[in-house]
Amino acid sequence: MEKKRKFAENIIKLAGIVLGATLLGKMFVALGFPETNIVVVYLLAVLLVARFTQGYQYGILSAVASLLCYNYYFTAPYHTFAVNDSSYLITFVIMLVTSLVTSAMTTKEKLLTKEAKERGEESQILYMLSSRLSDAADIEAVLRIAAESISLLFQKNAGCIYVGRQGAPVYIQQVGGEQIHRSVQKPAELRGKFSNLRTEYLEDEDAWYYPVNGREHLLAVVEIDKAVRTEELEEKKKFLHSILENIAMALDRIEITIERVRDRENMERERERANLLRAISHDLRTPLSGIMGTSEMLMDMTEKEDKRQALLQGIYQDADWLKAMVENILSLTRLQDGKILIHKEPEAVEEIIGCAVAHVERSFPDRVIQVETPEEFRLVPMDAKLIEQVITNLLDNAVKHTAPGEAILVSARYTEDSVVITVRDEGEGIAEEDVPNLFHLFYTSKTRSADVKRGIGLGLAICETVVKAHGGTIVGRNRTDRKGAEFLFALPLEEGEKADVQRKNTGH
To answer: What does the record say about its membrane topology (predicted)?
Structure first.
């Protein structure tokens, strides 16, 4: 419809200008002007048509129409297209060629002027966009600037939808001179469409959709009204891509800023929590030691048959548990702050395991812990006290999550570059929702039974911190051979130890 309207406008302009030139020629004849003046009038008409119509074809058409009108009205025989004087043929050819050249030059100049104007406008839009985006403080501000700039570029409605990872999806649409905040329908589906995109853009009956890709993922989607023609999109393709790149850089910058602020806040919270825990734990150690000493002295002064003996034992055990928890908190906060240095010395794994097992069996004399160690004797670089604490915590965790009759096994084996220590039990295993959070500080399972509610989520967090400080790895999972859980941690061997293990494995 738009094309037909423009075609009609151009034809009317052409007909009007050629008709005007003809009337002016008639007036020149009446005034006795020579025919050369009439030729100049028609050349002017062709020039005007080329200037005020869109498309070189109208200039050519006006040149032909001017030639025919000149022949019909101003050369003998009049009011016919017949030519009696051969000299007129030369005039016609020169007039036609001159008209065509004039039309072509005018059309080209007009196109160059139009392109220069568009480039100037685009450069101005891009400059304003870059300047405004650099000042944008949040994601919504970027979307508003993007929607306004793209709407200005195409002179049509446009929108920008944020589907990145920092915050909820946001959709800003520029409709005329107003900006509308719309809801985003199915952002995950939108991400899915663009993650598998094989073309430059998507389209539906309402709009064109262009992706705004960041460093690692899709950041936003730009929406352009379908009233914009494909040809116009192609014409402004390069400039549109420049706008999309600027939007991507701005959104990337804001996402990075949000991540840094969040990380800084998390670090500050962790630091404050660690300082609070350290202060509380430090203040609790002395009174707990006093309670344990007093209860132990009272137990020695009380007959074993006395009912108070059991109460005193309970006080002592609870104080001992609290003291162990306090020591764990202090150890964890110091490790995380780097205040405990790892002093690695060559140690026998068997001895470390034996000390940890003995410690746990003293606390739980009714439990039997099985031990399996390699036949070959090896020395592994480690901080013996800290690794013993890791094994003790893992065994303590196994005891709390198994019944008295269920087996607990601690074993060690060598690989080419590490020693792997495993603690297995035959309990109920680990709930699937708990597996990703096993080593998170203060995480406790919501599915465990009431008899193991005493833990506060410190033991496994300490294990992970110590093992990582040794350059090792630790995992927790359910057993595949039977019910129960297993925890494995690996400590790296020194180069000399690796070579020894490799020689043993190859038989050399």
So the answer is: Multi-pass membrane protein
* Interval 199-228: pLDDT, tens: 778 888 888 888 888 888 888 888 899 888
Q: 265 and 282 share a domain?
A: yes
Instruction: Please report, for residues 17, 43, 51, 136, 271, the alpha-carbon distance to residue 98 in angstroms, rounded to integers and kept in the order given.
Output: 17, 8, 16, 56, 85
The H or E element containing residue 439 is none
Residue 267 has pLDDT above 60, yes or no: yes
Structural domains counted in the chain: 4
Whether 193 is covered by a domain: the verdict is: yes
> For residue 508, what pLDDT band results from cuts at 50, 70 and 90?
very low
Model pTM?
0.51
Sign of CA dihedral 51, 55, 58, 63: positive
Residue 81 falls inside a structural domain = yes
What is the residue range of 299's domain?
Answer: 260-337
Same domain, 279 and 391: no
- The crossing angle, in degrees rounded to 10, of helices 56-74 and 87-135 is 150
Residues 204 and 318 placed together within one structural domain of the fold = no
Task: Give the integer Cα–Cα distance in Å for 210 and 485.
Answer: 49
129 part of a folded domain: no
Residue found by looking up tokens 């690692």 in the block: 216
Q: Are residues 364 and 485 in the same domain?
A: yes
3-state secondary structure of 410: strand
Assess if residue 486 is contained within a domain.
Answer: yes
440's CB contacts (< 8 A; 6+ apart) are 457, 461
Contacting residues for 240 by C-beta, under 8 A, at least 6 apart: 150, 153, 210, 233
Domain boundary among 259, 294, 321: 259
- DSSP character string of 113-135: HHHHHHHHHHHHHHHHHHHHHHH
Sign of CA dihedral 314, 315, 320, 325: positive
Picking from 281, 316, 337, the residue at the C-terminal end of a domain is 337
Task: Please tell me the distance from the alpha carbon of residue 253 to that of residue 237, in angstroms, as a whole number.
Answer: 24
Find the helix packing angle between 35-52 and 56-74, rounded to 10°.
160
Q: Is 226 in the same domain as 174?
A: yes
Determine the Cα–Cα distance for residues 232 and 279; give it in Å rounded to an integer. 68
Which has the closest alpha carbon to 160: 134, 137, 190?
190
Clarify whether residues 201 and 317 are in a common domain.
no
| CA–CA gap between residue 361 and residue 5 (Å, rounded) | 95
pLDDT of residue 26: 85
Q: In the 8-state DSSP scheme, what is residue 176?
A: T
